[in-house]
Inverse folding.
């Protein structure tokens, strides 16, 4: 399924001039600082905002084309939209909120689908409650369920975790992963949080000052020293998929193999062969010229330096390749000079903390 | 406790006020929606026109109605002949006059409620497949219910007290157009009617207290219903 968006619009001093196409379904992150135009793009895709010029295609369907004077109104686009604030209808129970879009869908999913979604999001206990009486996290889940139940061809999540504290975010994020892995609905995930992108995104669109700065695979764009130029954000250490070699490696560890080596993580409850998503932060990568001897870190990867880039007053990002994957280390400028790190050099990357997500 | 004449005036007051508010309500809702949610040329003019009864002396409104709807006037005659509607010297005329005078109360309250509605909810409903009418009846009206109710109750109370427009348009006919204020006026005009006027005034005060209490209770129920 292709999602192609081309639009031009002027809002006062702000000019939106966006053109991108993503072929891969899954989670498409629309990433950028606040004011980059993310919500305007999301609203244009949903039909809540009509740009002056452009064309928007979702799958086979042209939902907007200024030349052909096509504008499909939002109520017929069937795009599930989860807003920054949950926007639950205060005069309806949770169940009636959930059924709002479901009742209005042209091909209404049957009751089993309603039960499946409520179970998937753990909403069974909340159905009779009044939205005002729900916690922030529960409200988000209901809003998500409501959008899912209108049988959407695309789900837009506009900063769905904004305003939640870290604990609540941790409570919601696994539901998004579950959704990505268990439904086939593509998601447009609008965010300015690098952490959420590295955890969820397959594809990445970077917006900057109303323009597309980069489009590509999240696995490729995030661990790239140039990401800092494009997105006004530090690059991520690495994001890649790996397969579980054995559930029971020595010392309570699980071995994960990827194209370039293997890493060890605290034991995972996953069968051999299972695919997981592995990531780490650039700050959690140390570099050594020689293989370190007595060291507590479990993961030392042999890497080749590809590029370096100075960052801020004191730091430098080092781009490396390990097999086919890209990793970035953030070190100090002093270390960069002391170790004489330059493109082509072979180094050892010591990964201090590895995060494993489901996939 | 009440004499036949007193209960007649009381029931007539309730009938006139209830009809006035009930008939004006859908018009007030439509006008409030137009003024709060849409843009069109001449909007300021319509706004002013609809609020005119608030600033005009009620006697003038009554006089204008007489000019327009008297049985010998073209429109009044036409309504009587083709629709069987007679307003002159009839309780329906009293209701019409009271409804027009109190229309701005309903309009303002509903408009205020519509203004305070969160537009984000309408957007959410739109993405979930709800068209304009659907959103109006399933979202806007229920959420504006406290305002609609407040407007209706204020208008009802004001109708109970309406005097000038009613007496000018449909005169003071016991059992037909003589509502409580008109009955108090008549009592004061007749020799020795002070006691009767006092009794009717006490009745008016009691009625006002009952409506205010009822309004408060209804308001709470509605707030609970929309989950505030």
């Amino acid at each position: 399924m292709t999602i192609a968006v081309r639009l031009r619009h002027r809002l006062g001093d702000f000019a939106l001039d966006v053109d991108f196409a993503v072929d891969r379904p899954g989670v498409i992150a629309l990433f950028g600082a606040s004011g980059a135009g993310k919500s305007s793009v999301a609203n244009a895709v949903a039909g809540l905002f009509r740009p002056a010029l452009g064309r928007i295609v979702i799958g086979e369907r042209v939902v907007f084309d200024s030349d052909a004077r096509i504008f499909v109104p939002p109520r017929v686009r069937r795009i599930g939209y989860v807003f920054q604030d949950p926007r639950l209808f205060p005069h309806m129970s949770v169940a009636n909120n959930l059924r709002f879009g479901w009742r209005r869908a042209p091909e209404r999913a049957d009751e089993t689908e309603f039960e499946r979604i409520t179970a998937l999001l753990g909403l069974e206990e909340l159905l009779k409650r009044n939205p005002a009486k729900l916690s922030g996290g529960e409200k988000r889940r209901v809003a998500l369920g409501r959008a899912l139940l209108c049988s959407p061809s695309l789900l837009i999540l506009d900063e769905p975790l904004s305003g939640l504290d870290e604990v609540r975010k941790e409570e919601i994020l696994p539901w998004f992963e579950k959704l990505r892995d268990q439904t086939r609905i593509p998601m447009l995930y609008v965010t300015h949080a690098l952490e959420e992108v590295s955890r969820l995104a397959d594809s990445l669109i970077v917006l900057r000052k109303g323009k597309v700065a980069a489009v590509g695979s999240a696995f490729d764009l995030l661990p790239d020293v140039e990401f800092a130029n494009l997105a006004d954000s530090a690059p991520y250490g690495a994001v890649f998929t790996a397969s579980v070699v054995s559930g029971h490696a020595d010392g309570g560890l699980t071995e994960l193999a990827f194209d370039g080596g293997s890493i060890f993580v605290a034991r995972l409850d996953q069968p051999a062969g299972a695919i997981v998503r592995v990531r780490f932060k650039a700050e959690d990568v140390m570099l050594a010229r020689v293989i370190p001897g007595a060291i507590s870190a479990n993961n030392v990867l042999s890497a080749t330096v590809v590029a370096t880039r100075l960052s801020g007053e004191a730091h430098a990002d080092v781009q490396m390749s390990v097999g086919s994957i890209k990793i970035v280390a953030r070190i100090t400028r002093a270390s960069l000079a002391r170790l004489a790190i330059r493109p082509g050099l072979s180094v050892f990357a010591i990964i201090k903390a590895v995060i494993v997500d489901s996939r | 406790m009440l004499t036949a004449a007193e209960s007649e005036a009381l029931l007539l007051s309730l009938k006139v006020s209830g009809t006035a508010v009930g008939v004006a309500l859908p018009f007030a809702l439509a006008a409030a929606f137009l003024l709060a949610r849409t843009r069109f040329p001449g909007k300021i003019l319509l706004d002013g026109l609809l609020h005119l009864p608030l600033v005009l002396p009620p006697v003038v409104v009554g006089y204008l109605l007489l000019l327009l709807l008297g049985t010998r006037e073209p429109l009044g005659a036409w309504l009587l002949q083709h629709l069987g509607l007679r307003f002159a010297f009839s309780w329906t005329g009293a209701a019409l006059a009271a409804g027009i005078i109190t229309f701005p109360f309903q309009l303002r309250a509903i408009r205020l409620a519509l203004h305070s509605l969160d537009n984000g909810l309408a957007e959410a409903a739109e993405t979930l497949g709800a068209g304009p009418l659907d959103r109006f009846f399933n979202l806007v009206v229920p959420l504006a219910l406290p305002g609609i109710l407040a407007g209706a109750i204020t208008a009802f109370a004001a109708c109970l007290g309406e005097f000038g427009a009613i007496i000018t348009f449909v005169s003071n006919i016991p059992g037909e157009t003589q509502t409580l204020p008109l009955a108090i006026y008549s009592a004061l005009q007749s020799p020795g009617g002070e006691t009767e006027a006092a009794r009717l005034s006490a009745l008016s005060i009691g009625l006002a207290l009952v409506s205010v209490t009822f309004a408060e209770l209804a308001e709470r129920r509605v707030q609970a219903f929309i989950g505030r």
Summary: Chain B has a mean pLDDT of 90. The CA atoms of residues 125 and 134 of chain B lie 9 Å apart. Residues 4-225 of chain B form a domain with the MetI-like fold fold (CATH 1.10.3720.10). Chain B has one domain: 4-225.
